Amino acid sequence: MKETGDAISVTFSPWPLPALSPLSFVEALGGGAAAWRGSRGGGADGVICLNSNINKRLTQVEERWCPHLCFLVLQRLRFNDFAIQPRTFRSIAVLLPNSIMSDKQTDIRKWFMKSHDKGNGNVKESKPANPAPTKSQPEKSVNESQENSGRRKTSKYFATDKQKLKDEKETQELPAKRKNQKDKDESLKPPPSKKVHKVDDDDDGDDFVLSSSRKNSVDVTPSKKLKSGSGRGIAQKPVEIEEGDEDEGEDKETPLKSGGRGRGGRGSSAAPAGGRGRGGGRGGFMNFGERKDPPHKGEKEVPEGAPDCLAGLTFVISGTLDSLEREEAEDLIKRHGGRVTGSISKKTNYLLCDEDIGGRKSAKAKELGFTYFYIVLPFSLRNGLFDMIRASKPAKAPVREESKRPVDKVASQPKKSPQKLEAKKDKIGNSLATNVANKGLTTGASPAKRKTQTVEKNALTWPEKYRPKVPSDIIGNQSLVKQLHDWLAHWNEQFLDSGNKKKGKRQNDSGAKKAVLLSGTPGIGKTTSAKLVSQMLSFQAIEVNASDSRGKADAKIEKGIGGSNANSVKELVSNEALSVNMDRSKHPKTVLIMDEVDGMSAGDRGGIADLIASIKISKIPIICICNDRYSQKLKSLVNYCLLLSFRKPTKQQMAKRLMQVANAEGLQVNEIALEELAERVNGDMRMALNQLQYMSLSMSVIKYDDIRQRLLNSAKDEDISPFTAVDKLFSFNAGKLRMDERIDLSMSDPDLVPLLIQENYINYRPSSAGKDDNGIKRMSLIARAAESIGDGDIINVQIRRYRQWQLSQSSSLASSIIPAALLHGQRETLEQGERNFNRFGGWLGKNSTMGKNLRLLEDFHVHLLASRESSSGRQTLRVEYLTLLLKRLTGPLRVLPKVDEAVQKVVEFMNIYSISQEDFDTIVELSKFKGHPNPLDGIQPAVKAALTKAYKEGSKTRMVRAADLVTLPGVKKAPKKRIAAILEPSDDGLADGGGTLAESEEDNSSDTDELGKLLYTQCKF
Amino acid sequence: MLWDENAPSIAQNLKKLVTEQDCPHLLFYGPPGSGKKTLIMALLRQMFGATAEKVKVENKTWKVDAGSRSIDIELTTLSSTNHVELNPSDAGFQDRYIVQEIIKEMAKNRPIDTKGKKGFKVLVLNEVDKLSREAQHSLRRTMEKYSSYCRLILCCNSSSKVTEAIRSRCLNVRINAPTEEETVKVLELIGKKEGLQLPSGFAARIAEKSNRSLRRAILSFETCRVQQYPFTSKQVIPPMDWEEYVAEIASDIMKEQSPKRLFQVRGKLYELLVNCIPPEIILKVLAFFSLLHSHIPQREAIDKLTWKLNHKGTFDCRSFYHALHIPKEERFPWKSIWAVKAPRRVAFFVWTVTWGRILTCDNLKKRGYVMQSWCCIRMLRRL
Predict the structure, then answer these.
(1) Which residue in chain A has the smallest CA separation from B278?
(2) Which of A150, A337, A382, B129 could serve as A402's disulfide partner, Cβ 3.0–4.6 Å?
(3) Which residues are within 8 A (CB) of A35 and not within 5 positions of it... i.e. 6 or more apart?
(4) Which residues, in sequence order, are CB contacts of B63 under 8 Å at separation 6+?
(5) Residues of chain B positioned with their CB less than 8 A from the CB of A850
(6) Minimal CA separation from B263 to chain A, in Å
(7) Residues of A with CB below 8 A from B223's CB?
(8) This prediction's pTM
(9) Rounded to whole angstroms, how far apart are CA atoms B117 and A841?
């Protein structure tokens, strides 16, 4: 880093992109044009700008290098703080001043637009309806890559400039199309491509002082579009339409030369910048995480690059990107060999972001230091990522050109990488079938070993063929395999020998189990590991799986092995006893592998029990394998087994193995594609191999896209939990779901999904509300959603009560889809400490509590009725009497000084109204309100205890009459329950005939039983 | 007893009715706390004498066959030898089984009366307005079929929720809520009987607070007594606990309208529901409070005249001119209907549509056609 006056230029190496040149780094401090010029001449490739004159700098930057520039944003520019380490810092960067970042008024985007407009004249002028301008850039570079690739090879950075210039010339070539374009400065003849290059060279040397020519170069962009349109047949029409406007703008602008650049640009750009619909209307970068639709979605042509142009690079995507959905961007990167990770780490090369400057990820990025990654800013996604990809694509024509062209002086260093790429491409081209290419293209492969196998393409399916041969071949779960190995290795000494010598010892050793239970999802190698381990320890594995009948063994084992399989198992398990007596070394050791034990179903009656019995008596090790360890069926088995839960291997592990297989089979796949495959199959190695094999039938080169295509459909059939469904319905991109998808989602559980929606819809900040300062839009959306949920409820009642199931679609529409459609967006928490996930519907719990309370109230009601002091209904009781009752019951306890007296009073009151102890609790329970003081506050525990005691005491003298019912015809069964308690003085207890007498204690106890039964009953409605 | 005081004329008439001739089915309706049940009790006593007072309470589970499955319904009844009182709407949406099976069984069952004095039994059904429509329809038949030896006394708050069919089969008796003066009289009577000193205006305040419900008035009178005695004239009449809570919700709602607040309010509503407060009562009270709150001006500003044609509220000629000049209604698009080269009948059809006279369901309904409505949502709303 050297300081020249007010400028510092820094050179960095090595440049990480194979396709791009090493970059040098220039800092134009304070806006010294000389420094700029100097740096320019010296082949500097990047600019850092400071607060002052930032617009101008950026203008230049944009104009010249925009397509390839990566902008780096720093908060405050002090070079000492900046601490650039040339070796690791691999980027050019533009530093935006803090003021721009933090100023809420200035949307960074808008700001960029402005400066861009200024620089580029009307290229950036963008009416919302007019997508064409943004298109210009990509097409331009496509163009470039077509015709100028030879030149570009030498210097990626200057390529565009040159391209621009060249285009300029070419536009002049086409005067018919661009009549109003009059560039005095440009006197160059329209040459065929070869000449262009020369001109480019000149131009490269040519200085920034000639700003008019620069300007022209920018102005011409539409013509490039035109050209590319005609050349490539992309988007011709809009371009043509656009052209007129732009030309006018240009004409206006051309007179304003060097000095007037800023002003001229401003004049024309002020309106469009505002009218863009993005600048003003959005919170922009300030609200991180709120993912909106990309503002220019689909407006830009997504470039096609060389397959591996991003190989080895790691990207992190943050915020809303300019023209791509996040998923699309991911795809794009993956397709070109890059890796996308979720969070920033030291390995991260790039942070793709647009709006989200100042968000969490970029903050993290800053924290980690700039030396590790880049921030690719708005333009850079558009131009950066796209161009990175685009640049990497070797054009078809230029090979010829290349040979003729003289090598450029200016940018001679970067030559290497593109050529390499070219070479690579060639290789790909002509060696598709050969293994050499595989070696070249694939990473982490061990092709030499496998090469021979490619020959034998036989009938074996791949999962069988590439089944691991030794335990270390097993992907993932190595520790478990080791555990299994140890267990098996020590089995004999642990159980057999000790069994012979000392039985007591074995029983004490609770840690040792006689069987293992391997569990895990299908296809992750449970059976394989069991087999391999036993094979390794030279056990003879006997596998019994679901295809065998595994019912309970016949009691008469004398029938012999010839009978059922179960018998043979029994035989097998027990007859080791024989072999113990014989010479053990001669006898082959056996291990029983019970595969798919959770699949023991109807046919295998008593299978599990029998298995357990077998385990108990077994003289050989038993390995049980199941998918779901928590299955109800296996509950008892689990106790007898050593549990080993296999986990899914990571996608990297799987990809590595898949890569080996692919190499062995002569398939060309890149690692990213395989990782994608691994991810899609959800850890199922077997399925991955099957898919791979299937694909290998039709193609020999498998790309990322193919895998995506192939597995897109299979992903659909997954079972989704209500939570996932609700997440999806409310997700940011839920607006893009098709109607049938939404119905599927909401129908995935027609009971729970509406509940979850109802529980959580308040938490969403709807993306459809857009900018919503005071939340009014959101509230009105919530109101609409609530209304719809209410409708859904009405419909639901119709469905349930009158079984109008044909309405179920309307129901799911009203109760789930409409609210979700209105409110989908970003979830936020409403309460402190709440986790930002969808809550489970609180309604169910509340409803069941309500049911419980209602029943308690009903009991109380019955008691009160039985006292004959009141005949009011349950509801009246709750609404009107309860307050008073509570006061009567708790007041004395609190107020009266003497405990005995107070308790006596309360018990008397309870007796009058036949209120039992439980009813007392009910009353207190029902009077509790959250946020209000507990009605029992202020009562000493001693008083409470005294009350209980007094009540119990009183109950001995109480006579409770359980009245018999008049039996009614039509009631087939005798009523189960009688809570008919009429409290009467014991002396006239016999006044009513036909009564059965019962002691109050009994009654009480039965009451409590009933209450217990009634607790927590859930009802559907 | 209210027998004499509340509704003397009704009571006298009923008494006459019962004593002199056969009693028809009765439907008592009126606001809560007006004495419907008391009247019914009195009526029953008049009919059956003291035996009507000897009631026993049963809470039992009935097994009801409902098509393919059988349902257990728990029901509390209050019965004497001659009458059964029950609350069929307790069974929720299964209430029609109660009506179809249980009530029918009860009604069928002729009381054995050796003396042959009163040849009928009485079923007292409470809260009939809460019965579902199906249950009410089922009830209708029962009422007719067993009318010879079974009388139904229905009791509800609002007769409008009872179907016409049932209402027409009953003698409707409306019980008015006591006026505040009557309430005060009763309270003073109680005070005298209990030997309490009532400060002047205290009873009136209670009466005012109790919203013309005598029961409530008496209850809050007692609450006051429990809370503080001797009374002071300034004594606060404690509100119901849940009412307090509802008021809290209402003020919450009024203070702030945000998703967060919505969430909190939902929590509080759940709390009320969990405490067995019937939702309709919550809503009623809540609406009342909200109404109260909504009339409190939110901004402290001086009232002034505003010019409505202009969104600024200040008068300007322009808006007035526009208001005068531009006719409000748009012109009928006759040209685009009749001048288009389309078959006459199409044009005619479009013309009808434009006028909104096409015979769609709603238009037909407007004209008085009775027809089956197929629009489910509309149908549901009607329910």
Answers:
(1) A875
(2) A150
(3) A4, A5, A6, A7, A26, A28, A29
(4) A971, A972, A973, B70, B71, B72, B73
(5) 273-274, 276
(6) 7
(7) 883-884, 887
(8) 0.50
(9) 59
Instruction: For chain B, give every domain's residue range.
Output: 7-174, 180-227, 241-291, 333-382
Same-domain check for residues A706 and A733: no
Dihedral, CA of residue B147, residue B150, residue B156 and residue B160, to nearest 10? -10
Could A968 and B90 be called an inter-chain contact, meaning their C-beta atoms sit closer than 8 Å? no
User: Among A716, A736, A758, where does a domain finish?
Assistant: A716
CB within 8 Å: A795 and B32 = no
Asked if this assembly's ipTM is beyond 0.90, the reply is: no
pLDDT confidence of residue B377: 58
Question: Whose structure tokens read 């010019």?
Answer: B307
A385-410 residue pLDDT tens: 555 555 555 444 333 333 333 333 33
Q: Domain tally for chain A? A: 5
Amino acid found at A334: K
Whether residues A741 and A787 fall in one domain: yes
Contact A971 B93 (CB under 8 A): no
Contact yes or no for B383 and A798 at CB 8 A: yes
Domain range B241-291, CATH architecture: Up-down Bundle (1.20)
**Lowest mean per-residue pLDDT among A80-94, A136-150, A963-977, B221-235:** A80-94
Q: What are B259's two structure tokens? A: 């998703």
Homologous superfamily of the B7-174 domain (CATH): P-loop containing nucleotide triphosphate hydrolases (3.40.50.300)
Cα–Cα distance, A385 to A392 (Å, whole number): 11
Q: For residue range A604-644, list pLDDT tens digits in order.
A: 566 777 778 777 777 778 888 888 777 777 778 888 888 88
Q: What is the pLDDT of residues A178-225, one digit of tens each?
A: 444 444 444 444 444 443 344 344 444 333 333 343 444 334 334 333
Q: Which of A775, A804, A963 sits opposite B58 (nearest CB)?
A: A963
Is the CB of B41 less than 8 angstroms away from the CB of A971?
A: no
Residues 821 to 850 of A: which have CB under 8 A from any B CB?
830-831, 842-843, 846, 849-850
Q: For the segment B28-63, what is each residue's pLDDT rounded down to a tens digit? A: 888 888 888 888 888 888 888 777 777 777 777 888
Four-residue CA torsion sign, A715, A716, A720, A726: positive
| Cβ separation B219–A880 shorter than 8 A | yes
Give mean pLDDT, residues A263-274: 37
